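Hi everyone, sorry if this is the wrong subforum. Our group has a chain we'd like a structural model of before ordering constructs, and none of us has done structure prediction before. Sequence below.
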Amino acid sequence: MRATHAPAVRWEPILAMMLLALIFTWGQHRARAVGETSLPERGARAVVWPLQSLLVRGGASTRTVATAAYRGRSLVAENQELERRVRELEADRLRMVSYYLENSAMRKKLGWAPLEPPPAVAARVIDWSSGQGRKRVTIEANRELERGNIVRTQAGLVGRVIEAQGTRGTVMLLTDTESAVAARVLRENGDFGMVSAAPEASEHMTMLKMIPHSNRADLRMGDVLISSGDGGVYPQGIPIGFIERVETSAVNVSLITAYVHPFADFEHLDYVLVERRGE
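Answer:
Right subforum, don't worry. Here is the predicted structure as tokens:
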């Protein structure tokens, strides 16, 4: 039987790799001793870092795609629900128009005076503009708007139309630093004052402030403020907000400032009511 011999081990590559490892280790220690980066380490970084960046970007892209795919299903469901609500609202609107026409025809047959147009119409906020104290929105209604129209929600006063073009108008909100409304406290013999924006009052919520006309004003926490009608810009009686706190000046105790939490939700304006001045 023929004997088989194991292949001879070639020591040259092994010795060369060991020598190369010793040279790299010596170079690494020498570079570290003088606070520098060795040549092998620079070469490794030049190769690894681009690959690491590519892997990170790939992972982020994969995560973004996965999130979009998951969120996409939710958005489709939300969109379908919104479309259903829009159809229901449109059907309700058509029914209301039908009732209005029937009522108008019946009044005409009976010889009664025709119905007055609704005192307020709904409008939708379609654009926001803010910055450097400027707080304005663009609204679109189903009738022509006029400069000076009053804008409010069911909860309270929002502002007034300062520019109008057809059914669209620009509304300066009460939170605009150029805005001011004459107000009074909703109490017997309640004090009068001017309400304006108070951007310095809170970083987390919209606040207004009231400066009373009298330095002996009796302002209390919880007091409700309404428009007074003074000046003719806003009609009287529109709710504005309630007093959250009252502060006096450290320099002059007769200077009183009441910080007001508005009834209207200025952070989530969607649909508003538009009234002609004086309606």
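For your construct planning: The chain has two helices and twelve strands. Residues 182 and 194 are 5 Å apart (CA to CA).
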